[in-house]
């Protein structure tokens, strides 16, 4: 398995500002992902964080709005830029461990934009 | 494309009742994996069970059991003798063999009343 530490756990931010969310894993993992969960909704994949290269974004998500870094095999960051109230969501980091089928999730970052 | 449907938006039961959560999936792939995750009010996603497309054997694990039927593309999850701590949102998810990301259903909110 993998133990994932996600920071911050929650934040209240002013519109127009940016927030960077950190995801730290206790072991090297092959794949890291970022999901968004809007209030009362299911999880939507934002992007795959690629180590050493640009992230791969899903339809509807762009790098300018959600820049992602992954400098090594255990750490990634997601920035929510120029925030608006519509960005209020839970953001979750997820990892896949080689040889294990299920994904593991961080505890999530509950973001409120006012 | 893959799709996961959870027709039950919300379910309420009284403690000690059995409850079954329904999940129907769509995929054209012959190799895939199905999962159930639990999301308590704290927000993290907790992995519960996994089934691969080659194994239709239904199993019981403690108070949890699942019924996987390829003929109807269903992967239902049953909690026996429910407890208040089972109150959460439950997500069914699908992962195809070649892909790395998950497709989540919309979730079923389970409330277990004392």
What report would you give on this structure?
The complex is a heterodimer of chains A (114) and B (114). With 114 residues, chain A is mainly beta. Chain A contains no helices and eleven strands. In chain A, the strands form two sheets. In chain A, strands 2, 4, 5, 6, 9, 10 and 11 form a seven-stranded mixed β-sheet that branches. The model of chain A has no long low-confidence stretch (mean pLDDT 93). By secondary structure, chain B is an all-beta fold. Helices cover 0% and strands 54% of the residues of chain B. Chain B contains no helices and twelve strands. In chain B, the strands form three sheets. In chain B, strands 2, 5, 6, 10, 11 and 12 form a six-stranded mixed β-sheet that branches. A four-stranded antiparallel β-sheet of chain B has the order 3-9-8-7, with no helix packed on it. A two-stranded antiparallel sheet of chain B has the order 1-4. Chain B is globular, with a radius of gyration of 14 Å. The mean pLDDT of chain B is 92. Chains A and B meet through strand 5, strand 9 and strand 10 of A and strand 5 and strand 6 of B.
Uncertain residue segments of chain A: none
Give the helix tally of chain A. Answer: 0
What is the residue-mean pLDDT of chain A, rounded to a whole number?
93
Instruction: Report on the biggest sheet of chain A.
Output: 7 strands, mixed
Gross morphology of chain A:
globular
Count of helical stretches of chain B: 0
How would you sum up the major sheet of chain B? 6 strands, mixed
Q: What is the C-alpha radius of gyration of chain A, as a whole number of Å? A: 13 Å
Elements of chain A, N to C (H/E):
EEEEEEEEEEE
What is the number of strand segments of chain B?
12
Keywords:
heterodimer; A: 114 residues; mainly beta; seven-stranded mixed beta sheet; four-stranded antiparallel beta sheet; globular; B: 114 residues; six-stranded mixed beta sheet; 0% helix
